[in-house]
Structures are given as structure tokens and as C-alpha cells.
Specification:
The complex is a heterodimer. Chain A is α/β, with parallel strands linked by helices. Chain A is built from 10 helices and 8 strands. Chain A is 48% helix and 15% strand. Chain A has an 8-stranded parallel β-barrel with strand order 1-2-3-4-5-6-7-8, surrounded by 6 helices. In chain A, helix 6 (133-149) packs parallel to helix 7 (172-186). In chain A, 46% of the residues are buried. Chain B has helices spanning 5-13, 16-28, 33-53, 59-76, 103-115, 128-138, 155-165, 183-188, 198-209; strands at 90-95, 118-121, 142-146, 173-177, 193-194. Chain B folds into 2 domains: 5-79, Methyltransferase, Methionine Synthase (B12-binding Domains), Chain A, domain 1 (Orthogonal Bundle), CATH 1.10.1240; 90-209, 3-Layer(aba) Sandwich (Rossmann fold), CATH 3.40.50. Classes of the chains: A alpha/beta, B alpha/beta. The interface between A and B is medium-sized, with 22 and 19 residues.
Chain lengths: 265, 212
């Protein structure tokens, strides 16, 4: 399971303050904590800074990579911010994300094809949000085609089936899960990825819903997730589910985690 | 007058069957249609909005109650005469250009409608010109804009400017909302109001128009 650590997002007050004040120590700490907790990529998002997004995102990239040797997930819908940030990134970043929305596809495609990188492909069509499994799979398939046409290998593509809140439509959970299964089945070798918090929007005790969604998504084949690796309950869920899916030889990871005090009920 | 308390309760509970049955009974008892709406349905939605703001009700309950009211309104529609039903105000709403997110906007529309406002919903990906054109056509009291991406928010001040250029900025109150939007941003772009969720949007709209 590939883990993208989500904490460095300026929509979080402490991170916004750190960026505002150029508090490198705070950002480095947030990155280090996530790396030590098992992240494979560190997501960086400065979207709340609007016109200053590019400059803030670049600062985040440099600040993190100066101290933490890890690839980043460059999280922005802005082509300008992405093109600046990608130049400063050391190694192969993950780009979060591209979709079929015309402007977004046109402006981001040249960027994701000119640098070696991993690409998150969001199942959003040109003019509307998907509502069914089929619509998601169709958008995903089209994106995979477009990206592969440009030379991006299947293994570098991470399809995000677009998670919508179940509070608005109780079929949204199964719609996303069904899309994950289908995409993993139709395109062997591709990756699927999603964040965990959209699904519980508008409901109480969101963390409970989020971590159960992780378990369900994993059992439908999800290969990567954007989450908070410092959330011990969530990571314990991930380990236990990996185990249950037969992916933990001799239950080694689980037992080791337990011995390190990381398994919390 | 036919006792509307059961109707109001049914709206709060989201009990469509009871609500529709009660609406029919009220009609059969020759209750004034305005009264059924103002004294039966709207108080129910007001209570729902209030409970949501207090964290007692959640999004699914809002949706259920809104649907309940919609079904009752459908029943009442043939009995409404032009100019009969008073409205708290006309609201023109849409998600801005380049943005396809509509969940929040739809919740706001539903709650405003439940509170007695008349909604014209332009949908998603609405460019400034379309907001202006429709505003010139229907003369709303409120123009409400939603955005979920920080990259689409800039369409909000552009739309406000377009309303100015068309000479109608001072004829409307502009409200904005959406996950990346803030009170601070609303002040920066000189919108008239900001709300963080559908319940707060109704309260703000009432305040802006001086209605209750």
C-alpha cells in the first residue's frame, strides 16, 4: 500500500501559520513525522494562498526536501504553481492531479509529460461530476489512454475514482468502490488512489467512517491512499486489513508494529 | 384553520407520507395555500436549519426534510395563483466558471427554498456573463456564488465587477461560499456576505434582506 502523507496542507491552521511565518522547523517536523510513520510521498498543498500559491508551494518543496529525503506529492490544480514547484523538486514527484476538465487537461498534460513523475488521474469528466460506476470507469479509462499515449507508463498512473459524500447520496460509497475494482481489473498494473475524508462529509464521527472506508477500498483493490500516517488508529486499520487480505507474510508487519506500540484498537 | 402542527413535525422528521397527507387534509379543509406554506412548511424547515446549525441535525436530515417540503409544494402547485405566494426574496445561485462542484450549492438552494426564498439555479461552470445576463432578466435580490477550488475563486471578483459594469451591482446583495472561501476573502472582494454552510447561508440571506 503506497501512502501519501496529507498533513502539509495550508487549509490546516498550523500549516498555514508556518508558511506565513516561513517557519521551516515546523514544516520539516510535519514532514519527518509522516516519513517516520511510513509515508512514501509527502503531499504539499498551498492552495489557500491564492495568487501566492506558486511561491508558497515552491517554499514548501524546498523546505521539506532540504531535510527530508523523500519524493513529494505536488497537490495543486494550478498549472502555474505546478510548473514552478516541479522545477524545484528533487527526484520524481507525484502530481496531484490531472482530470478530463478541458482547461486542466490542456494545461497540465505538457507538465506531466515533460518530467518523470507519477500522476494522479481524477475521474472527473469535462462538464460534470460522475454519479455512477460506469461514468467513473469511462473517465478513468479515457485518462489512462491519454496519459499512456503521451508515454506515461501504466504503473505511474494513479486513478482517483472521485470520492463523494455518502451523506448526500448513500450510493456514493459503492460507486467509488465499484470503480476501484473495475479499474484495477480492466487495467492490470495501474494504481488507484483516493483521499479518505470526502466520503464522510456532513456526518458525525467522521474518523470512524473514514477508516472503515479505507478498509473497504483496500479490499476492492486500492493500491495507494492519501491519509494522515501519524493517525495511529488509521495506520493500525491499514496494517490489520493488509494482514486480512493475505499481504503480510507470517503477519510480520502487524506483529512488529504491535511490538513497537503502533497497534491501537 | 386546520391545525398545521402535524405537518410541521412531519417536515422536521422528513416523513414524506405524513407530510403529503397532512397537506392534502389542509387543502380539503380549505386552508389558504399561503398559510399552508408560511405556517406549516416553512416553520418546519426553519427548525431543521436551526438544528443543523446547532449540530443536532446533519446533511442527510436536511436533504430529507427539503425533499419532504418539495413533495408538499408539488401538491400545492396547481392551487397557487400567479402572485399568490409571497417570497422572502429572489436568489440567483451558481457554481463559478471552471468549477463543477455542486453539492454545497445544492444544499444552500434547498435550504433557502425551504426558508421561503425563490431560487434560480444556474448550475455549475457559470461564467460571469451568464450571472449578469440572468440577473438582468430576473432581477434577483441576492446573487450567490459557490466555488470549491482555490483556482476558480477568482471568478467571484470578476463576476462582481461584471455586475458593476452592467450597472446592477447596487441592486443585488452578493453572497459567496465554498470550502476555500472565507469571510476575509468576501470582505476583500467586497461581497456583501459569506456563509460557511447551508444553514448559515439562510440566516445570512435573511439578514441581508432584512426579512425573518
Amino acid at each position: 500500500m503506497i501512502i501519501v502523507g496529507e498533513k502539509i496542507n495550508t487549509s490546516r491552521k498550523s500549516i498555514e501559520e508556518a508558511v506565513q511565518k516561513h517557519d521551516s522547523a515546523a514544516i520539516v517536523q510535519a514532514a519527518r513525522e509522516q516519513a517516520e510513520a511510513g509515508a512514501h510521498f509527502i503531499d504539499v498543498n498551498a492552495g489557500t494562498f491564492l495568487e501566492r500559491e506558486a511561491e508558497c508551494l515552491c517554499w514548501l518543496v524546498e523546505t521539506v526536501q532540504q531535510e527530508v529525503d523523500m519524493p513529494l506529492c505536488l497537490d495543486t490544480p494550478s498549472a502555474r504553481a505546478l510548473s514552478e514547484a516541479i522545477k524545484r523538486h528533487r527526484g520524481e514527484p507525484m502530481i496531484n492531479s490531472i482530470s478530463l476538465e478541458t482547461e486542466r487537461l490542456q494545461s497540465l498534460l505538457p507538465l506531466v509529460t515533460s518530467y518523470p513523475c507519477h500522476v494522479v488521474a481524477l475521474c472527473m469528466a469535462q462538464t460534470s461530476m460522475p454519479t455512477t460506476v460506469d461514468e467513473r470507469v469511462k473517465a478513468g479509462a479515457e485518462l489512462i489512454g491519454r496519459l499512456m499515449d503521451e508515454g506515461i507508463p501504466l504503473e505511474r498512473i494513479y486513478v482517483d475514482p472521485l470520492i463523494q459524500p455518502v451523506s448526500v447520496d448513500t450510493n456514493m460509497g459503492t460507486a467509488a468502490l465499484g470503480a476501484i475494482s473495475r479499474i484495477m481489473g480492466d487495467f492490470p498494473g495501474v494504481n488507484t488512489i483516493c483521499g479518505l475524508s470526502n466520503v464522510s462529509f456532513g456526518l458525525p464521527v467522521r474518523r470512524l467512517i473514514n477508516r472503515n472506508f479505507l478498509a473497504l477500498a483496500m479490499s476492492h483493490g486500492l493500491s495507494a491512499a492519501i491519509l494522515d500516517p501519524t493517525d495511529r488508529q488509521l495506520m493500525a486499520t491499514l496494517l490489520s486489513v493488509d494482514l486480512l487480505l493475505g499481504r503480510d507474510e507470517y503477519c510480520q508487519n502487524y506483529i512488529e508494529a504491535y511490538q513497537n506500540g503502533r497497534i491501537v484498537a | 384553520m386546520y391545525e398545521l402542527k402535524t405537518l410541521t413535525e412531519a417536515v422536521i422528521k422528513g416523513d414524506i407520507n405524513t407530510a403529503v397527507a397532512e397537506t392534502q387534509k389542509a387543502l380539503d379543509a380549505e386552508t389558504n395555500v399561503n398559510d399552508i406554506v408560511d405556517k406549516g412548511l416553512i416553520p418546519g424547515m426553519d427548525e431543521v436549519g436551526d438544528r443543523f446549525s446547532k449540530g443536532q441535525f446533519f446533511v442527510p436530515q436536511m436533504l430529507r426534510s427539503a425533499k419532504t417540503m418539495q413533495e408538499c409544494m408539488r401538491l400545492l402547485h396547481p392551487f397557487m395563483k400567479e402572485g399568490d405566494i409571497t417570497t422572502k426574496g429572489k436568489v440567483l445561485i451558481g457554481t463559478v466558471k471552471g468549477d463543477l462542484h455542486d453539492i454545497g450549492k445544492n444544499l444552500v438552494s434547498m435550504m433557502m427554498e425551504g426558508a421561503g426564498f425563490t431560487i434560480t439555479d444556474l448550475g455549475v461552470d457559470v461564467p460571469p456573463e451568464r450571472f449578469v445576463q440572468k440577473a438582468q432578466e430576473i432581477e434577483p435580490d441576492i446573487v450567490a456564488m459557490s466555488a470549491l477550488l482555490s483556482t476558480t475563486m477568482p471568478s467571484m471578483p470578476v463576476t462582481i465587477e461584471a455586475l458593476e459594469k452592467a450597472g446592477i451591482r447596487d441592486k443585488v446583495k452578493v453572497m459567496i461560499g465554498g470550502a476555500p472561501v472565507t469571510e476575509k476573502y468576501a470582505q476583500e472582494i467586497k461581497a456583501d456576505g459569506y456563509a460557511s454552510d447551508a444553514g448559515a447561508a439562510v440566516t445570512k440571506a435573511k439578514k441581508l434582506l432584512g426579512v425573518s
